[in-house]
Amino acid sequence: MERKISVSLYILAFVITIIIFAIGFYAGGVFTEMNLQGISSDIESVSKRASSAELLFLLEDSSSFCPVYLDELETIDYETEQLGNQLLFMEDIKGVSDNELKKEYFALETKSYLLSKRVKEKCDTDYILVLYFYSNIDCEDCGAQGSALTSAKEKLAEKNINLRVYSFDGDIESPVADAWIDKYNIRNYPSVVINETVYSGFFSEEEIMDNINK
Amino acid sequence: MISIIKIVEYGVAFFALYITVFFLLVFIKYRQRVMKSKKFDKENSPSVSIIIPAYNEEEFIEKCVKSALDLDYPKEKLEVIVVDDGSTDRTPKIVESLKVKYYRKKNSGKADALNYGIEKAKGEFIATLDADSYVNRDALWKLLSLFEDEDTVAVTAAVKVKQRKQGFWENIQKVEYLFTIFSRKILTFMEAVPVTPGPFSIFRASIFKKIGGFDRNSILEDQEIALRIQKYNYKIRSSLDAEVYTEVPQNFPALFKQRIRWHRGGLHNTIKYLNLISPHYGDFGLIIMPLSLIAIIALFGVFLVAFFYFATNWIYGSKIGVEVFWLSLSPLHIVGSAILILNLVWIFLGLMFFKKENVSPLQVVIYMVSYAYLLTLYWAAALFKEIKFEKVTW
């Protein structure tokens, strides 16, 4: 028998597949844009909250207001951390990196850090503030360093020790991140700053814990 | 790592979507002909020999032979031959008490037993019937009506599961068998049926003289002969309503063993007939043969992607919580949803032809969810045994 080849069906199926893929990519792009806008708007909202808390300090610089400060700071820190994780997810899982958004986030982190430092001094809290500098371009140990910090944070939380980590991407030309990098003279990644001391290179979970327990 | 995963996931998605769309288009093109059946001219009914190869089939053989003898067909035109492949149980005793031609030979495998029966058969058409399968009374008429032209040399029946305990594994196979019948019918329109299933298939007797008998070296002789028929450019057609009910494994170890044999046999046959992947063999050579190879790669791709997503989303999900769902929406999810919807359409179309089978939505869902993973498992185990050069057993 003469074999038949359904050329028209091959072509039609290909065209339909391409159309569905195009719709998928368009809709996926729309979703990503919506997600980024959502994160941006959340950063703005948390940032406003942090500004309000700073204002509160200017209005009433008294330790009697500590419960209010602490409560507000806890919310700001939690939301900042969540936004950081969302940005990390977008970058690591979806491969979407928005430098402008990261700059906004680093500014928020800095605001949150300064607020925490002030509350720590004013209210005599036992917060341990950690600055973490990483690179997504040329840093073999950065992934492991991130995990070590997360793990140390969880273990310290069990001992009621509050470790707050503020991460900065050294590859992004952010005025805020650059200011920190200059201040602590960061030259390679990962670098961790604990209690104003800079630790360059990989700093293991045990080393972090030992340092904090000193 | 991510870029490789992305390439795999998008490649698999494109392939899965293309194949789904293609088969839906084939269905749309030939929808009028799916259920169309010709009336068979009973006045000029040809002689038919039914060959039943049997090896230790004491449990099922009587019912099988009786179903063949009870076929609605002129008795003088019907010959039932049982070839006992050296059974050591009560099979010979049971068969001897039935009114059929009975031959007993030394055990040498199913293909040999079938060839032995073909040598003895006198019919113009030769049907092969597995000893653990039971034909419906009208099946023969329905199958013969599909021999529309001289190029059509084989017709396959609608193989359904003989319901026993209606347990989990039996129900999965019930749904699987129904979709296989539907898919095979669609393949008929592409002249690309790749198997003449052992439970019940019928051949023009002359084809065995032209292309030879069943291959005794193949562990999947019903697929091997179908591929050989394709090689010689003859047609195989499939029936949607000529029913035969077959016994199926009732538990996972038995099912696993059966499927390993099928997959290893399928792999051997595909390698043997690799040269059929060619435009010279039309849609069969361009779509169906490559599909059997690509499917292996695609299945591992699906498994790899699913595992990767599970691992990464679990780690990040623990950090971010429910938000991960909205954040992770990507083009792939849209394409994946399209594949799912089109597959549901395909399943709905398939089930339209099997309303009386009472397939529950739950059975379909379980089948859909488990099928790709089971298939991946079968392939992985089959390939592992191939690499180890492990002997294939029945």
Order of helices and strands of chain A: HHHEHEHEEH
Separation of the first and last Cα atoms of chain A? 87 Å
Helix-strand makeup class of chain B: alpha/beta
**Chain pair forming the biggest interface:** A-B, 33 and 42 residues
Spatially, the strands of the biggest sheet of chain B line up as 3-2-1-4-7-6-8-5
By secondary-structure content and strand pairing, the structural class of chain A works out as alpha+beta
- Nearest-angstrom radius of gyration of chain B? 22 Å
CATH overall fold name of the largest domain in chain A: Methane Monooxygenase Hydroxylase, Chain G, domain 1
Instruction: State the total count of DSSP E strands of chain B.
Output: 8
CATH-derived architecture of the largest domain in chain A: Up-down Bundle
Structural write-up:
The complex is a heterodimer of chains A (214) and B (394). Chain A contains 6 helices and 4 strands; from the N terminus they run H-H-H-E-H-E-H-E-E-H. Chain A has 214 residues and is α+β, with helices and mostly antiparallel strands. Chain A has 2 domains: 9-125, Methane Monooxygenase Hydroxylase, Chain G, domain 1 (Up-down Bundle), CATH 1.20.58; 126-214, 3-Layer(aba) Sandwich (Glutaredoxin), CATH 3.40.30.10. Chain A has a 4-stranded mixed sheet with strand order 2-1-3-4, with helices on both faces. In chain A, strand 3 (191-194) and strand 4 (197-200) form a beta hairpin. Chain A is elongated and about 95 Å long. The mean pLDDT of chain A is 88. In chain B, helix 2 (61-69) links the parallel strand 1 and strand 2. Chain B folds into 2 domains: 2-32 and 282-387, no CATH class; 38-251, Spore Coat Polysaccharide Biosynthesis Protein SpsA, Chain A. Chain B has an 8-stranded mixed sheet with strand order 3-2-1-4-7-6-8-5, sandwiched between helices. Helices cover 55% and strands 13% of the residues of chain B. The chains are: A alpha+beta (214), B alpha/beta (394). The A-B interface holds A 1, 3-6, 9-10, 12-14, 16-17, 20-21, 23-25, 27-29, 31-32, 35, 82, 85-86, 88-90, 92-95 and B 2, 6, 14, 17-18, 21-22, 25-26, 29, 151, 190-191, 233-235, 279-286, 312-313, 316, 319-320, 323-324, 326-335, 338.
